[in-house]
Design brief:
- The protein is mostly helical.
- It has a single domain, classed as Malate Synthase G, Chain: A, Domain 4 (Up-down Bundle).
- It contains 9 helices and no strands.
């Protein structure tokens, strides 16, 4: 086990949990120091839990904005939403770098953060975007970890294009697709 000083510098969450356990062990051993070991341990654990809470909040922000980007046809807020996602992704990367012991919790914390979907749906409905709100409720906020953390952005509904149906008597779709140079991305499933 790394010593407390080096762990403090490399993984604050792990350090706080370790220090809380050391304080509790000192209390069980009957240390004669006039310290409130149990409350000190709880306070130190709370400091570490704040890192997990901050991770959840950042993931909620990312998921909220990804949902709005994916389902809201509003164009004006799109750049701001993408900027918020990029900024929040950087903050998550920093949190994970400073607290490697958060990484094993990432899947469960991301699942918790998806609970932002009903709130996002209400926000969209309140902004007059009933169809987007219904789509968010149906989606539920579940994104793959790579979608949340990597450089992925959903296609906005207005630019989501399906390939056109081939005209009668034309070349097969595969041949046309090879010649096409469209930058349109497929619609999200």
């Amino acid at each position: 086990m790394p010593d407390g000083a080096s762990l403090y510098e490399t993984d604050f969450l792990a350090w706080s949990l370790q220090q809380a356990e050391v304080l509790r062990a000192a209390a069980r051993a009957g240390s004669n120091l006039p310290l409130d070991f149990e409350n000190l341990a709880e306070e130190i654990e709370d400091l570490g839990r704040r890192q997990r809470t901050e991770l959840r909040r950042r993931l909620e922000t990312i998921i909220e904005h990804l949902l709005k980007l994916q389902f809201s046809p509003a164009r004006d807020p799109r750049n701001g939403r993408e900027s918020t996602v990029r900024r929040s992704r950087r903050e998550v990367a920093k949190l994970l770098s400073e607290n490697p012991s958060l990484r094993p919790m990432l899947a469960s914390v991301t699942a918790e953060a998806a609970d932002i979907a009903p709130i996002t749906a209400r926000d969209l409905a309140g902004a007059g975007e009933a169809e987007a709100a219904a789509a968010v409720r149906a989606h539920g906020g579940a994104f793959a970890e790579a979608q949340v953390l990597d450089d992925w952005f959903p296609v906005p509904p207005a630019t989501c294009l399906s390939p056109p149906a081939p005209p009668a008597g034309s070349a097969p779709a595969a041949a046309r697709a090879g010649r096409a140079r469209s930058t349109a991305r497929p619609c999200p499933a």
